[in-house]
User: Fold this.
Amino acid sequence: MIDISIIKRIAYCCLGIFQIFCLASCIQKYSEITLPSPDFKIEFRLTLENGIPSYTVFCDNTVILRKSSFSFEFKNQPPLGTQLQIVDVKKSSCDETWNPVLGFSSSIRNNYNETWITFQEIDQNRRIIQLIARAYDNGIAFRYIIAGIHNQDSLFITNENSEFNFTSNDSAWWIPANEFAYESLYRHTPIDKITDANTPFTIERNDGLALSIHEAALINYSEMTLKKAKADSLSFISSLWPEPDGVCARVKAPFTTPWRVIMIARTPGELIESHLIQNLNEPNRITDYSWIKPMKFVGIWWGMHLGKYTWFQGPKHGATTKRTKEYIDFAATHHIEGVLAEGWNVGWESWAPGKTPLQNFCKATPDFNLEEVVKYSKSKNVQFISHHETGGNIPVYEAQLEDAFSLCQRLGITTVKTGYAGSILPSGYHHHGQFMVRHFQKVVETAAKYHVALDVHESIKPTGLDRTWPNLVSQEAIRGNEWNATYKATPPQHVTILPFTRFLAGPADYTPGIFRVNHSPEKNKRLYCTLTNQLALYVIFYSPLMMVSDMIENYSNSPAFKFIEKVPCTWDETKVIIASIGHYVTIARRSKDRWFIGSVTDEESRTLSIPLPFLEKGRKYIATVYGDSKLTNWEKDPEKVEIGNYLVTASDTIIAPLSRASGNAITIYPVEKESSDNFPSIAVYNTSTQEKMNVFKTIKPLGCSGIKHLALNKPINFKYPFNEKYPASGKSALTDGIKGSYNYSSGEWQGFEGVDLEATIDLVESKQVQKVSIGFLSSIDDWIFLPTKVEFYTSSDNKSFMKVGEIHHANSKPASNANSVQIKDFSVSISQENIRFVRVIGKGVLRCPEWHPGKGGKAWLFCDEIVVE
Ligand code: NOJ
Ligand code: CA
Assistant:
């Protein structure tokens, strides 16, 4: 058989000569430029019709993006993108290999064909715009260079209209464009159901190809999100965040935009192995980077999220000298390289939603001796990680940047975690607009000057800048484990989606490693997974700053902690073994001659077959499997782990049984002493798999699937909308369905800001009702209060409603040592026939009371599902 790509190769060379000839002789007729990938399987094709350029993307001769045009709009000049002619075309190629300072592969090939196409307007403006496009074997990228007009050297960009026109209504994994810090659950819908989305935006095509749209090298510009283009449900257009004056990017001409990237893979797993985003960034600018170190770290952190400690000073203050030293001792004993202490500095008292956060990053609280702690950590060969929670107050942070980082350098602190949990000040600026992109960059560069590496929370999404600035070691921009503390619990499928979506952008500080899974039974709060699932995340997720996030006392005496001690957080090689987005994934990563394998599953129990062909042929290894025992049960015994050592070789396959919402973590070390031959072969482990699976099949489902959302068949009628920041999200319910209830919120909290809750539910058919209940959350530090009154009504016709109950609640000032986080159920027992509609009214506090730090500010009402029995 003739390889079609060879014919294409020859045709491409001839066409190139022909195109250059055409260009020289007759510019106007020049209307099509093709750019194949080095393996000729992917192609970028630029066409110019009637002065309007558009591009098409092909993979294996199939169109995967239909003709998509691009243009720009400005505040100070007419739009640019029509009436263009091509005046110059250059082509080049690159095939280089580079070594990242930190990475999930130690060596990265950067191999592409590139074209620079220069367009000029035909009309009197004669403005110039260039398109640089690159074709890789695993994707397409393009960016623009916009030249100035006449004598103007400033561009005020109000819109970039880069189109992404898909060809079929395939299945997409996405989060909405405007979610706070990207901390939301992924949606899974057909493309035509999406109004707007952020990137990485991942698509599984019916023909098996997997795509992800993202951007690279986001510098001095707004982030790009995608919004549905009118009139065509499969077409999206880029969208930028406007600054308060309506300008999205205020730049100096000529200006080069970030790359627009289409990652293309034959399987979803290949997306994970791709280095495209980093390849599109400039090489490392930090010459001496000896101070940038990958690190696992424990921290005074989870205790605050559970409400056991506080960030601010007082009787429950977490970051004291004494406790930090205990964490340092623990880290030193367990080969954990770093210790974080949040709340070490003064200013937390001013940090609350809606208040102006005034943190001081140079002054420690009286019970925290910074010098002493850092000295102690050094004596134990542990790094102290400092913390800057800005609360979003940019001027206050920028004023302290130099001092704060030079303090770090003086003391020898080489890693800082930063945070932006709050609305951005000055107000009016979007978290992900140009102002913030510039700020994040300024912090990275200032930190580099003082030899400080960063872990940025509530950051801008990564776009591969860690290649250029390797001190940008990790970022959050993800819905991490913190949500599993006392906020909204995360459904198990979340961790099986993230590797194919958010992690395509770059490392993420998800903060895995919660060993006390059922951490707050008294508050009905826990993680909806098992401990083996938490272990596996150390391999599934990539972050060179990797938190070991539980309180240290929860690790004591746990043999499973050995896995965390051993697992590295940077890698020489990464291979995705098996994957199905939203269901399961197994990833193997190598560090020197050792392999580590992680597998996670969603709410289904399943058997995963893990072949080991990547091991050196003829060599014997010991696999230590940290897997589920027969007793591992997300509900009853989530912390049960079975640990065993087995002999394996490259020709073996490990058959791992995974309980619901569970995981499996394996270390594979070469046999050093022949005495290790005494270990049983992996066949012994494999033979127990079926027996375990038989037990797992009897475990109660989590309620994430198969729930009858009867109410969703009819829209729920809200008098006041719930705040968009807290949307319901599909089938992510965790507690729903168990009672055969009518849920409208899918187990997610619904937040109502400064308004009452008034929800009317259509029960779809008339029936007998015995009981109606609703749960409310109180988290006074977060301005969330219980309602003052809850009223219950029923109706048979949606016209006349009868009050069937009323419960009062006094929101008095809690005692200083009281737990400010609680859940309270409000319910009424009734016995009524023929009920078709149920109405619940929760009277909110509306404004924070006098005694509250947010006095007068809008208070929140957070409710859980309404259960009708
Ligand atoms: C949100 C961050 O994601 C979390 O890690 C941190 O503990 C809090 N903000 C407080 O800074
Ligand atoms: Ca966060």
